Amino acid sequence: MADRTPDLSSKSPDWWRQAVIYQVYPRSFADADGDGLGDLRGITQRLDHLAGLGVDALWLSPFYPSELADGGYDVADHRDVDPRLGTLDDFDALVGEAHRLGLKVVVDIVPNHTSHQHPWFQEALRSAPGSPARERYVFRPGRGAHGELPPTDWQSVFGGSAWKRTPDGEWYLHLFAPEQPDLNWDDEDVRADFRTTLRFWSARGVDGFRIDVAHGLVKDLAEPLRDIGNIGATGEEALPLVPPGSHPYWDRDEVHEIYRDWRKIFDAYSLPRTAVAEAWVPGPRRALYARADELDQAFNFEYLQTRWDADELRRVITDELATARAAGATATWVLSNHDVVRHTSRLMLPSGTDPAAWLLSGGSAPAIDTGAGLRRARAATLLMLALPGSSYLYQGEELGLPEVADLPTEVLQDPIWEQTGHVRKGRDGCRVPLPWTTDGPSYGFGPGAAWLPQPSSFAAYAVEAQTEVEGSTLELYRTALRLRRKLLEGETLTWTPDAPAGVLDFARSEDWRCLANLSGQAVPLPPGEVLLASSPLDGRALPPDTTVWLA
User: Fold this and answer.
1) What pLDDT, in 10s, does the model give residues 457-481?
2) What sections of 248-309 are H helices per DSSP?
């Protein structure tokens, strides 16, 4: 078979179109200084793992100064490094080593809000109502006889009112935690500052950006502010209930003006910077973010949310390919990230099970067969990596890590736990630090204990335990990524018309075909050389919860 390895070098402006990007949650990846918190030097020391894995880029979740009210997404300075995680020199060393190893670097940009510790917000609190300092955020007087009621009924994504009252009686908007006041993107200071931020990191060698809450920047701040009533408040479920682009604060049409402005910055570099939107919006609206004069891609969260069902997955895959094609972009695929239950566990939950309720039970209702979950997760991964477009991996999934659902409540860090009155446990279970070795106080994460406790079962998942072990999940990922790069051709797939019920069967080219058996029984394999299978095959039969690549 001919080697069609695509040009993913620094000279190719389209490196992102079918890349594999690995998300690093810095505080949980590797701890070099022994304080229990992952840091930039720890990441740099472990970059050989990513290069050996075969990914094309690493995406760094926020590493900026933060009090960790929301895991680093409460940013006190968008152009610096949290001193607990390192320095700007450490960041430069990380980028330099990544580039030496052939890895691109993508960083998170958090433009919807700042930390309440940000100098701007502290200035706003010291300033009078109506002052220019307060105009950078969304301050309003309250309702009621004495202003004692919030300005609107808007709700925080994390639970409760999206408004917090200040000592002088005004209220400020926070669509997330109270420690994350929303910026006012009608203010030119805000727009200018983020232009500076994009140029700052681009000048330090960053290759791209992941835009946090990309659909939430612009709000309808015309007076009087609108209540939302029963149209929905906290996410994608609200959007179909109002005319597209007209929700008071989600996915407003005006947000695209910001990204057209940013595109000019990205294209000013000899290798244009790339960007992907975190936009929880339906497919037709998602395509708008990935137009040629805006961002390059937008995350397809429908795929992540789809059950392990062949018909549903085929529909979502077909729709996403059409959505990306309409924008001139490529599709994005993701199974796990820092905000959701790891797919090794999530895909085993019975239909209709709320992952939040399962977490609240400590993972006991229902109990999950971890072996079966790993088998299904491996099949899901091999299916995802065969699809046209970019695949985003989350740290630890290459080890087959399950969700740590039984973390004691006293160690939880996620603000969701407190803000929902202990109704939702939050996202700590997917953020437990990685195991690198089979022993030690934190299984090689660092010289001491980790900031979140790791279960003893993590020893069996450690990088050390799986390296060069035939059939291990780590070696499956390494083999799949090596093969994928050789097999890539074009950006389309062709569905096989006579696939058995419960089987996804498509060809990527004349030389490469993928079959995933999501049914409950084995099915015969068609003719062809087996290149890779997610689990052992039974002769020429494809067992349930197994994916195979055929030549």
Assistant:
1) 999 999 999 999 999 999 999 999 9
2) 255-266, 283-289, 301-305
Range 19-29 average pLDDT: 98
Q: Do 437 and 444 contact (CB within 8 A), yes or no?
A: yes
Residue 278 annotated as catalytic: yes
Token output for 154? 């808007």
What's the pLDDT score for residue 244?
Answer: 85
Got the DSSP string for 203-226?
HTT--EEEETTTT-S----PSSPP
Task: For strands 163-165 and 20-24, give the pairing.
Answer: unpaired
**Could you give the count of Cα atoms lying within 13 Å of 64 in the half-sphere of its Cβ?**
24
Closest CA to 77 of 218, 167, 197, 185: 197
35's tokens: 């304080």
- Amino acid 282: pLDDT: 87
Q: pTM of the entire structure?
A: 0.94
Q: Provide the Cα torsion 4, 514, 282, 195; round to 10°.
A: -30
Residue holding tokens 């106080």?
A: 441
Q: Is the dihedral of CA 61, 106, 300, 50 positive or negative?
A: negative
The residue type of 221 is L
CB 281 within 8 A of CB 272: no
Q: Is the pLDDT of residue 9 over 70?
A: no
370-386 vs 473-487: helix crossing angle, rounded to 10: 10
Quick one: which H or E segment has residue 332? strand 332-334
Q: What is the pLDDT of residue 6?
A: 44
Predicted confidence band at 283 (pLDDT cuts at 50, 70, 90)?
Answer: confident
For this structure, is 207 an active site residue?
Answer: no
Alpha carbon distances (Å) from 227 to 186, 224, 485: 20, 9, 50
Poorest-pLDDT segment among 236-250, 352-366, 480-494: 236-250
**Coil, helix or strand at residue 57:** strand
- Supply 442's token pair: 């934190």
Cβ neighbours for 422, distance < 8 A, ≥ 6 positions apart? 409
Q: Of these residues, 31, 39, 278, 296, which one is catalytic?
A: 278
Percent of the chain with pLDDT over 70: 96
What span, in angstroms and rounded, lies between the C-alpha atoms of 31 and 448?
9
- Nearest alpha-carbon partner for 20 in 505, 447, 485, 491: 485
pLDDT higher than 70, residue 107: yes
User: Which of 212, 294, 320, 398 does the annotation list as catalytic?
Assistant: 212
If pLDDT is split at 50, 70 and 90, which confidence band does 489 have? confident
| Helix intervals (H) in 101-144 | 119-126, 132-135
* Average pLDDT taken over every residue of the chain: 94
Say if residue 230 is exposed, middle or buried (CB neighbours under 10 Å; 0-12, 13-18, 19+). Answer: exposed
215 exposure class (CB count in 10 Å sphere: 0-12, 13-18, 19+): buried
